[in-house]
Amino acid sequence: xxxxxxxxxxxxSNQSFPNNNNGYITPAILRSYNTNVIDSTVNQIQxxxxxxxxxxTLQSINAKxxxxxxxxxxxxxxxxxxxxxxxxxxxxxxGSALTNVVVGENINLNNFTASQDIKNSTLATYTGSVDTxxxxxxxxxxxxxxxxxxxxxxSxxxKNSTLxxYTASVDTxxSTIGSASGSWINTSLNSYTASxxxKNSTLATYTGSVDTxxxxxxxYTASxxxKNxTLATYTGSNDTKWSTLSNVTASILSATASLNSFTSSQExKNxTLATYTGSIDTxxxxxxxYTASVDTxxSNLATYTGSVDTxxxxxSxxxxxxxxxxxxxITAFTASGxxxxxxxxxxxxxxxxxxxxxxxxxxxxxxxxxxxxxxxxQGTYFTLTLADxxxxxxxxxxxxxxxxxxxxxxxGTNSSASLAPTMLQPSGFSYSATPTSGKIDLxxxxxxxxxxxxxxxxxxxx
Length: 462
Prior knowledge:
Blueprint: H1 6-16, H2 27-40, H3 44-63, E1 86-88, E2 101-103, H4 105-140, H5 146-180, H6 186-229, H7 232-243, H8 249-332, E3 333-336, E4 339-342, E5 362-364, E6 371-375, E7 381-385, E8 391-397, E9 403-410, E10 416-419, E11 423-424, E12 440-447, E13 453-458
Parallel strand pairs: 5-7, 6-8, 7-9, 8-10, 11-13
Antiparallel strand pairs: 1-2, 3-4, 9-12, 12-13
């Protein structure tokens, strides 16, 4: 992959690690960014190789110093070679800010180079450790809390920006060292060394700050390790893999290719999942519409149920009334098999058609105080046996309009009968009982009002 400029790396960082509400961070994106960072940093192997030629150049410079040292005021024109130390109370030009400086050029440069080599080695070790941590972070990022990761990512973006600015400054300084390595003089070297010491101090401070931040990351990592402890099988296998990581880099690259292939496959699956999720969302929308329809139907059902409840209430009231009516009907009617007995007065408000015979009760009329009272509420067929040697007075009671009745009279010895004045007879045909005992006389009675009864007599039925 080609090297990227610091600005390009910054753009890559911002695009690869968006805020959680703008996208998602995958291991593939994190590895791609780490690869860009690694490819864009100083080539330590090349830097170490170049250091040898720089040392040879410096040894050549050292061989040429000493014989050109002078006293008093001097003006130097052109290239100068100095062997030995330089003591000065005042510098002009590049050394204007330095006074009373005594510097052993080669020693300081060699010390700086050796120190820088140590720092570079430490940086390489630290970078390897950081790479390992970033790889671990990439593996674990799927189970991290996105909120904590986003907070850390935003903080790390700020640190990366600071690191990018610092790296650009260091790159400029290394470029200056590379172009000026053949023509350095003590003044420029001393000025650079002092400046570099200041920057190294700043770097040490920044490194301390970074170490503190990574200590914080370590604390978070410890928490993450606790979570990972539950992944017993994976942790044991993963520890073994990490312990042998330095020996299997080539296989890791192959595994990374396979992982990239898997990631591509996973992204395809994610696309399919997104399509499926969209389908599920559509189904849930349809379900929401259906649910709303069901809610409407349940609302209508509730309204209908309320109406049914009202009808049941009305039916209950009607049933109570019907029960009352049925109770009275049971009192009025008695049914046994095909026989129905009507208790009380029955009023028919239409024609009555009877198939079969009509049978009525026969009331045997008694005589009280020589009077036979025909109670029309007891029936319409009466029988009466006249008392011997006595006149029996016959009169109607409880008379109703529209009643037809029959009175069958059996005569006694020397018996006679008289009718009440309300019982009207044909003129010249007044009823007198058959004088012979044991004869049957028949009186037909008809009433059209409640005051009188019309009587037609038939005597001595044989």
